[in-house]
Design brief:
This protein is of the alpha/beta class. It is built from six helices and eight strands; from the N terminus they run βββαββαβαααβαβ. β4 (about 55-60) and β5 form a beta hairpin. GO terms for molecular function: ATP binding; ATP hydrolysis activity.
């Protein structure tokens, strides 16, 4: 799979944030976008995933316009993990939170197959011991892994993460980046991370 950004531009209240951004990235690749705070990194990924509407340019997946797809179709292709803050709290167990990643594939209730996909991703991110713990009780690094597991449970082809290692100590930063690199390679995903470090 190829994700291509062509001449993407975005302005907010007459202030140009992005100007003619172009790049390509392929399955099996981890791409990190680096820049200072306020440089437009989060704006870029929100334009890519369709949260923000850009004034000029294209987001193409295998030569097809991504923006012409329905929200449900987009959710099956691309998953987004926003930046979490220290106040991030979900009043659900780890299992229930990860299972919510199946919503783009559902019409009614979760099947045993959906539950197995969630469990596989919980194991992949070494979260089994927290299966029935509440997300709010976990450390920042553990919460980040829960959100990555939920995103993977969507079975996307493209995984986009905004500041996945911010507010983590060095050990968790290195561990998280290693997990993401392995996911890109082993799952043949396009993984895009936004970093400022």
């Amino acid at each position: 799979m190829k994700l291509e950004i062509k001449n993407l531009s975005f302005s907010y209240k007459n202030k140009e944030i992005l100007n003619n951004i172009s790049f390509e990235v392929y399955s099996g690749t981890l791409l990190s976008i680096l820049g200072a705070n306020g440089a437009g990194k989060t704006t870029l990924i929100k334009c890519i995933n369709g949260i923000l509407k850009f004034k000029k340019g294209e987001v193409l997946i295998d030569e097809k316009n991504f923006n012409n797809k329905s929200l449900k179709e987009k959710s099956k292709i691309m998953s987004y993990v926003p930046q979490i803050t220290s106040s991030f709290d979900i009043d659900l167990t780890v299992f229930d939170t990860v299972l919510l990643g199946r919503i783009p594939h559902k019409t009614f209730k979760f099947s045993e197959w959906d539950k197995q996909i969630a469990l596989n991703n919980i194991k992949k991110l070494d979260l089994e011991k927290y299966l029935f713990s509440y997300v709010g009780e976990l450390s920042g690094g553990e919460k980040q892994r829960v959100l990555i597991a939920r995103a993977l449970t969507q079975e996307p082809k493209i995984l986009i993460l905004d500041e996945p290692i911010s507010n983590l100590d060095l050990k968790f930063q290195l561990e998280t980046m290693k997990i993401l690199k392995n996911l890109a390679k082993e799952e043949n995903l396009i993984v895009i991370t936004i970093l400022h470090d």
